[in-house]
Amino acid sequence: MELDDINTITVLGAGNMGHGIAEVAALAGYQVNLRDINEEFVQNGYDQIEWSLGKLAEKDQLSDEEANAALERVATYVDLAESVSDADVVIEAVPEKMDIKKDVYTELEAAAPDHTIFATNTSSLSISELADVTERPEQFCGMHFFNPPVRMQLVEVISGAETAEETMDVISDLAEAMDKTPVRVHKDSPGFIVNRILVPLMNEAAWAVESGDTTIAEVDSTAKYEIGLPMGSFELADQVGIDVGYHVLQYMHEVLGDAYEPCPLLEEKVEEEKLGKKTGKGFYDYEDGEGAQVP
Ligand code: 3HC
């Protein structure tokens, strides 16, 4: 398959990443089928796309016509088979759990046309292990976007053990067509490149606070003003979802060893369902709208 053969992209999962990826694909002119497991989830994702396109138009980064045209290219689905019947590429962004993703790929393999490429937005899980569930491991790769997809430039394109070079080429071309910068990752190791470095940074910040050596406010101001990151590491954890970082760490801990042991502070937040911006509370409080505050 070549870039010009791609017309329709199905995005599985309308959450934080899924809706953002669908938005980016629609902005690039593709027909997008956005699917989640129930009407509420998929509608919520669609509403977030509408909000985000509105924000971009408000800031003159898009015209109103372009925003409306992008939204019109997004169709919503609950039935997985229907959502992939005409898909040239499926980008999967369902929760970061190996079992959930494997179940989705089993269903997807049975429903998708033979030519369809499967690209997973996993943050850390083995591409080869996921590809093994399907009968098309050569048409399977990682396509890892960053949060928020509409603002972040990088896309990691990750090869599994059996991914064909042609699949890497077309998915890299697709990332460029979406106005992103693809970086090819040829070793399928936990967390790939960015999360292998970034998620332990968030974890170490949490350990430093947990041990009483510092505070969230101190860490975040030094990260922003001295280390030069665009956000403090606790703000970033809230942005990506504390659960996402925690699941990445659990997997890295399991595969790579004790250096990646998740800090209990992260686990507590996950148990309390204070997952960051998406739940209104995380390390900061977002419920009053403007300006985050340390709870
Ligand atoms: N769509 C449209 N507008 C959005 C938006 C979206 N998805 N998200 C935020 N905005 C809006 C805000 O509402 C705000 O609007 P307002 O000015 O009207 O209040 C505005 O954007 C803020 O934008 P600014 O340009 O003023 O803010 P920043 O310059 O701080 O940029 C940022 C925001 C791009 C998110 C920047 O802080 C940043 O780069 N942060 C780091 C993010 C990062 O590192 N992400 C990667 C995390 S790792 C990951 O995702 C991998 C995963 O696998 C774990």
Please give the domain count.
2
Give the terminus-to-terminus CA distance.
51 Å
- Report strand %: 5-15%
What coarse outline follows from CA principal-axis ratios?
Answer: globular
CATH class of the largest domain, anyone?
Alpha Beta
From the alpha-carbon coordinates, what is the Rg to the nearest angstrom?
19 Å
CATH topology of the largest domain: Rossmann fold
What is the structural class?
alpha/beta
The molecules bound to the chains, other than polymers, are:
3-hydroxybutanoyl-coenzyme A
Domain 3-hydroxyacyl-CoA dehydrogenase C-terminal: 191-286
Protein name: enoyl-CoA hydratase
Keywords: Fatty acid metabolism, Lipid metabolism, Lyase, Multifunctional enzyme, NAD, Oxidoreductase
Domain 3-hydroxyacyl-CoA dehydrogenase NAD binding: 8-188
How is this fold's topology laid out?
Layout: E1 8-12, H1 16-27, E2 31-35, H2 39-58, H3 64-72, E3 74-77, H4 80-84, E4 89-92, H5 98-111, E5 117-120, H6 127-131, E6 140-144, E7 154-159, H7 165-177, E8 181-185, H8 194-210, H9 216-227, H10 233-240, H11 242-256, H12 264-271
What would your notes on this structure say?
The chain is 47% helix and 13% strand. With 295 residues, the protein is of the alpha/beta class. An eight-stranded mixed beta sheet has the order 3-2-1-4-5-6-7-8. α1 links the parallel β1 and β2. α1 packs across α2. The radius of gyration is 19 Å and the shape is globular. 3-hydroxybutanoyl-coenzyme A binds next to α2, α8 and α10. The site of 3-hydroxybutanoyl-coenzyme A has 18 residues, from α2, α8 and α10.
